[in-house]
Amino acid sequence: MAIQTFVASTVLTAAQMNALQANDYNQTVSAKTASYTLVAADKGTRITMNSASATTITVNTSLFSAGDTLFIGPNLGVGVCTITAGTATVSTSGSLALAQNGGGTLYFTSAGVATFFSGSAAAALPAAVDYLVIAGGGGAGSMAAAAGGSGGGGAGGLRSTVTATGGGGTLETAFAPTSGVTYTITIGGGGAQSSGNSTNGGNGVASSVAGSGLTTISTVAGAGSGGLTAAGTGGSGAGAAGSLAASAGTANQGRAGGTAASGNNGGGGGGGSNVVGSNTSTTFGAAGGAGIASSITGSSVSYAGGGGGGGYGEVGGAGGAGGGGAGAVNGSTRGTAGTVNTGGGGGGSTGSGAAQGGGGAGGSGLVILRTLISEALPTTLTGGTIALTATHYVYIFNASGTIKWGV
């Protein structure tokens, strides 16, 4: 029987008296088989979960008052049930992830703040943390007036323990976190776009994961393509332009940029993390190299594609799959920027007009971490968000932040 409000004249029937003894603490049991969001009527009740897949119970604010409680559990299924803060704040000294037969009491200290007292053993520290670390992509340069299209910017270097890593390298090894160590996540920015004639695009900025006892996992910035001088080596290399050679990629992180013919022709494609930038010997810009398609989030998504080369009065090259920007078509338009948080290279500019439109900026980098849902959630997480798959917690950092497991 649900919680009742009694007054002096209240008379209970026999059925109501029996219902009071139906279970401990007079808790109405609400059985769930799929993810659920708490409602005000759940106060004082028991919620069970029974699912073979991972589920969540979401807690929002302004539904409960200070002193209200409810019991969550037992988790009857084999799928982990995670108590998740929606608009409310939920803390615990144990774990919010309930394995099979786990449960505990949710106690509200205010309308928007609750503490979960787990009645089950704390989840173990993650044994291995998978990662995908991508640097910022390179920006594209601008050639001199009537001097041919510039090459596409190189994609940011990509290192991964899931699906594939950059440059055709061998998958890297997940790291084992140390309890109480704060790991710093740095997201590299994309390289600056070029402006004006005969200017280089900016190199991207490295992304990394660092912490005490961990050999820093750092990626090399994508190479900005040349407009005045040749580009240097990057995570992935920049495309060639006229007499300015393409640049190389970094082993196990990205591929080289594509070549171009000297004279008034299109620019070579920027290297992607998976495929070398395309070559051109005509006035058409070449396509950027494709990036790596990774399934670290539970779905296949491409990252770190190279920028397309700019055309010389003709169509610019397409950006490589994974956020590469397309090359410009004429002198009044700018090459397309690489997509943010993909590490894509910027699209090249065209040299067919008296004034360059300019190359596109590189896309910023990204870090994604992943642990099993049977293992502990972090005790500290800043700058990132948590996603849930059937088997893993996924921590996505579009901006710099920190993460820590244990105390």
For the CA atoms, what is the radius of gyration?
27 Å
Low-confidence stretches: none
Overall body shape: elongated
Largest sheet: 6 strands, mixed
What's the total helix number?
1
Distance between the termini: 41 Å
Report on the structure:
By secondary structure, this protein is mainly beta. The chain has one helix and 22 strands. It has two domains: 14-118, Jelly Rolls; 124-407, no CATH class. A six-stranded mixed sheet has the order 1-3-5-9-10-7, with no helix packed on it. Strands 12-11-18-21-20 form a five-stranded antiparallel sheet, with no helix packed on it. It has a five-stranded antiparallel sheet with strand order 15-14-13-22-19, with no helix packed on it.
Q: Brief overview, please?
A:
The chain is mainly β. Helix content is 2%, strand content 24%.
Question: Helices and strands in order, then pairings?
Answer:
Layout: H1 14-20, E1 29-32, E2 36-37, E3 46-49, E4 55-59, E5 69-75, E6 81-85, E7 89-91, E8 97-98, E9 104-110, E10 113-118, E11 130-134, E12 158-160, E13 182-186, E14 208-211, E15 214-218, E16 292-294, E17 301-303, E18 366-372, E19 380-382, E20 385-388, E21 392-397, E22 401-404
Parallel strand pairs: 1-3, 2-4, 3-5, 4-6, 7-10
Antiparallel strand pairs: 5-9, 6-8, 9-10, 11-12, 11-18, 13-14, 13-22, 14-15, 16-17, 18-21, 19-22, 20-21
